[in-house]
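Customer escalation, tier 2.

The customer says the design service returned an amino acid string that "doesn't look like it belongs to this structure." They asked us to rerun it and document both sides in this ticket. The original structure tokens are below, unchanged.
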């Protein structure tokens, strides 16, 4: 089970996620209480070993802005929320970035439809910690896709049973307050997702 811990902004939480075995960490570089600057994202990304995918998270920015921020941060992947033309994905892929397409369940759920490497099927409001009907996507995407939206250490097993994803992604569910991560919750989430 691939696990991504998203919305990290403090070194101690990057270290906790890496030590607990996260496969990917998300650094939010768009409007959000979790937003980090490109230079802060670079500091955080540098703490992750090379086997951990570092993901810059964007929503609606022009592709040139995404390119500049991702390159300044030195992340290995970009996660695009919102509508982007296929050409945006191609332009970013040509830079060697891993592409993550984040959508709600009513979108095109074919993995690779936009040449992305990874699909995230999320709640309608990304990063809001809102659970949704995870059974609605069971058997729909195939390949490498992550389930997200309202997951936490207490419900992630149930969500995995409901949707049968390839991996999971969490942000709010490992926080003690909006935008404030907790190392113990990060560890619990990883344990529960893989139990
Ligand atoms: O975290 C944000 O505030 C955010 C803002 C805009 C676009 C994406 C954002 N976050 C993405 C994620 O944290 C995850 O990919 C996912 O939505 C998980 O969210 P949650 O329901 O909070 O676990």
């Amino acid at each position: 089970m691939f696990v991504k811990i998203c919305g990290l902004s403090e070194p101690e939480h990057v270290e906790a996620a890496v030590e607990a075995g996260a496969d990917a960490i998300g650094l939010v570089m768009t409007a959000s209480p979790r937003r980090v600057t490109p230079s802060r994202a670079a500091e955080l990304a540098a703490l992750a070993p090379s086997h951990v995918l570092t993901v810059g998270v964007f929503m609606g920015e022009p592709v040139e802005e995404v390119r500049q921020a991702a390159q300044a941060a030195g992340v290995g992947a970009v996660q695009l929320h919102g509508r982007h033309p296929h050409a945006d994905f191609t332009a970013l892929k040509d830079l060697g970035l891993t592409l993550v397409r984040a959508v709600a369940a009513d979108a095109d759920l074919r993995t690779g439809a936009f040449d992305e490497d990874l699909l995230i099927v999320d709640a309608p409001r990304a990063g809001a910690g809102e659970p949704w009907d995870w059974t609605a996507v069971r058997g729909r995407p195939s390949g490498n896709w992550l389930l997200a939206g309202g997951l936490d250490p207490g419900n992630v097993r149930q969500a995995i049973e409901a949707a049968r994803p390839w991996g999971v992604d969490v942000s709010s569910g490992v926080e003690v307050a909006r935008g404030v991560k907790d190392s113990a919750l990060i560890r619990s989430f990883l344990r529960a997702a893989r139990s």
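Tier 2 assessment: The sequence is consistent with the input. The first strand starts at residue 2 and ends at 5. The mean pLDDT is 95. Sent an explanation to the customer and offered a walkthrough call.
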